[in-house]
Design the sequence.
């Protein structure tokens, strides 16, 4: 199966990740948000934090698109397509959390958004360097090309970009703040998409560098 | 200073993007030292822009050669086996763009050519899914921005909790004012009683 020059890169590992992602997306599509209950100091009352219907609908829509984009990134066999999927996931992650009505969370989403915006430079720049060095962006063709210094530099740039877009380890400081908000299943997809994407990106970088 | 404190300082959400920008900048400077060489064997080639401009081609940097339905243009794609009709149609031109092309030799470099005046068919035919993804990124960005601007999540004035708090404050305020008024009334009454007696 192919869309013109954009072919799929399929083996059992990728198919497994693709199907897992689609199953999770389905579970999230039929899921409902949790309600957090907080004990208050000084009184015997509890304070419930609910997600209202409008916010729920907006978040569910963005989560489903995010799940589909992650699933697509798992099986694509084209480097440029992968970077596009990654930046789509980055912008959706910001969108899912930016609808929260808590000031501290919105502040940290702002910082995460700054990183995600900066990361489009190394992400697309790295892909462009690899295209310039190889003359192609198809992973099946890049597999047989011997790595040059320019390709490895491009690969490292792409890795920096992917780290920032998916918000893994060093940038987790701003992301950890976001997980304190109500609305659990939709926040899980933020987590899950970054885990899956980073596995796929490392695999692609190994294809480029070997 | 202990190393744990140092890490805690770096992990403040406000400092993370700044640190990241610094590291990225340093890394990009290292990039100047990496030998860069363009591979001459690229996919989707076309003639050099200067060659087309000197030949007085109105569609200058976008011309991929060929004649519609007679001979295919310059094409070199990754998987020609999936694209049987590659190169037979190289681009679409809108009627307005055709008119501009007939009166001006600078059509390709003018603003008419980019937003839909001239559509590069080869890229759409070979990499159609990319264009779908690109525009869906834009659409998601617009959806998020419009959702935020309609709902304005930073606005706390109309929340039930805050309204209840405001009402409580207003009630206690008015109680206090009423108390003060009744006190001053009593004082005035006492004064009057003293004068009359």
Sequence:
């Amino acid at each position: 199966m192919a869309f013109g020059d954009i072919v799929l890169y399929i083996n059992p590992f990728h198919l497994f990740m693709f199907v897992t992602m689609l199953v999770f997306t389905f579970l999230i599509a039929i899921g409902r948000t949790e309600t957090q209950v907080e004990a208050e100091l000084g009184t015997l009352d509890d304070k419930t934090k609910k997600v209202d219907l409008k916010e729920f609908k907006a978040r569910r829509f963005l989560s489903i698109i995010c799940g589909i984009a992650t699933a697509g990134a798992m099986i694509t066999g084209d480097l440029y397509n992968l970077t596009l999927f990654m930046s789509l996931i980055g912008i959706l992650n910001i969108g899912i959390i930016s609808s929260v009505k808590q000031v501290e969370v919105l502040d940290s989403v702002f910082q995460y958004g700054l990183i995600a915006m900066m990361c489009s430079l190394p992400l697309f720049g790295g892909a462009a360097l690899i295209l310039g060095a190889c003359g192609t962006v198809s992973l099946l063709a890049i597999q047989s090309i011997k790595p040059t210094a320019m390709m490895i530099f491009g690969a490292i740039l792409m890795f920096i970009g992917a780290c920032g877009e998916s918000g893994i380890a060093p940038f987790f400081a701003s992301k950890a703040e976001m997980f304190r908000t109500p609305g659990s299943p939709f926040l899980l997809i933020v987590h899950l998409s970054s885990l899956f994407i980073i596995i796929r990106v490392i695999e692609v970088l190994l294809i480029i560098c070997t | 200073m202990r190393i744990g404190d140092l890490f805690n300082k770096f992990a403040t959400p406000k400092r993370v993007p700044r640190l990241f920008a610094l590291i990225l900048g340093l890394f990009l400077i290292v990039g100047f030292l990496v030998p860069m060489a363009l591979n001459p064997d690229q996919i989707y080639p076309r003639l050099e822009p200067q060659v087309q401009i000197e030949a007085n081609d109105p569609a200058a940097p976008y011309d991929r050669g060929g004649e519609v339905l007679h001979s295919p243009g310059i094409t070199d794609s990754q998987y020609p086996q999936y694209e049987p009709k590659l190169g037979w149609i190289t681009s679409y031109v809108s009627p307005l763009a055709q008119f501009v092309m007939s009166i001006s030799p600078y059509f390709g470099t003018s603003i008419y050519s980019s937003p839909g005046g001239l559509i590069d068919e080869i890229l759409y035919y070979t990499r159609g899914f990319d264009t779908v993804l690109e525009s869906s990124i834009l659409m998601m960005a617009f959806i998020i921005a419009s959702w935020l601007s309609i709902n304005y999540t930073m606005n706390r004035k109309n929340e039930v909790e805050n309204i209840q708090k405001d009402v409580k404050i207003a009630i206690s305020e008015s109680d206090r004012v009423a108390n003060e008024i009744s006190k001053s009334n009593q004082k005035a009454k006492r004064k009057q009683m003293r004068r009359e007696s």
Notes: Chain A touches chain B through 59 residues (CB under 8 Å).
